[in-house]
C-alpha cells in the first residue's frame, strides 16, 4: 500500500493539520472555531432532542469547554483607546507592537 492514493491523501491531511507555519495554525484554529460553532447550533432546543445530536454533544462538550477556556479573550489585551462603540461592542486599534504582524490577534481587538 506504500504510495497508494489512500496513503497519499492521508499524508496530505496530516501535513495540512500537523504542518508548521501559519497555514497549519490557521487550519487548526478554523477547525476549533467550526467545532465550537457546530456545538452551539446543535445545542439549540429543537436539535438537541435527536439521539445523534445528543451523542455529538456528549463527545464535543469537553473539547468545546477546553477550547473556550484556552481561547483569547478581550481581557487578554490592553485597551489603549476606544475608537468606537456599536452593537457588537467597543472597537480599539491594535497596539503599535502588532502593526507589523496583523493576524489572528487583530480580531480580538474588535470583540
TrEMBL record:
Q: Set out the biological process GO terms recorded for this chain's protein.
A: actomyosin structure organization
- Coiled-coil spans in chain: none
GO MF term list? protein serine/threonine kinase activity
| A cellular component term, taken from the record's GO annotations | cytoskeleton
Please tell me whether the keyword Kinase is annotated for this protein.
yes
Would I find Kinase among this entry's keywords?
yes
Alphabetical keyword list: Kinase, Serine/threonine-protein kinase, Transferase
> Sorted alphabetically, which InterPro entries does this protein's record hold?
Rho-assoc_Ser/Thr_Kinase
Q: Which named protein is this?
A: Uncharacterized protein
